[in-house]
Design a protein that fits this description.
It is a single chain. The chain is of the alpha+beta class. The protein has 3 helices and 7 strands. It has one domain. Helix 2 packs antiparallel against helix 3. It is globular, with a radius of gyration of 17 Å.
């Protein structure tokens, strides 16, 4: 089980009991209107579209064999792909739906929070380039 991030829209974002109210037609319009997203197709004699799942085709670091996916369920859109690029894509999608990003622990993400995470990731990567014996 992985950590998920959700696009949610509520009347009162401070009310943890209120369910998200994104409609399936809004979800379909969002995916159909975004050239970077494509519907999952079931394989078989007749290909059938799964309107609950879509893939992100334009992730900057992932190839077509392992694309990020987004899932619509009960008024929200979720994914377990929580890298920085995916968070920015989710934020873009949330803006189009007049919604917000919320993590499994109830925290909300905005552009400023994602930028801070991005900077922390860069610092961590740079720090890991030092020899193991160097502490400064």
């Amino acid at each position: 089980m992985g950590y998920e991030v959700h696009i949610v829209r509520q009347l009162d974002f401070d009310n943890s009991e209120e369910e998200s109210n994104i409609q399936i037609d809004e979800w379909k319009n969002l995916v159909d209107g975004d050239l970077e997203l494509t519907w999952q197709q079931y394989s078989g004699v007749e290909s059938e579209t799964d309107f609950e799942h879509c893939y992100w085709l334009s992730h900057p670091e992932i190839d077509e064999s392992n694309r990020p996916w987004f899932h619509f369920y009960r008024g929200s859109i979720s994914t377990k792909w929580t890298d920085i690029a995916c968070l920015y894509k989710l934020l873009q999608m949330a803006d189009k739906l007049n919604a917000r990003l919320r993590g499994d622990d109830g925290e909300y993400y905005d552009a400023e929070a994602i930028k801070k995470m991005e900077l922390a990731t860069v610092k961590l990567k740079e720090a890991s380039k030092k020899p193991f014996w160097k502490f400064w």
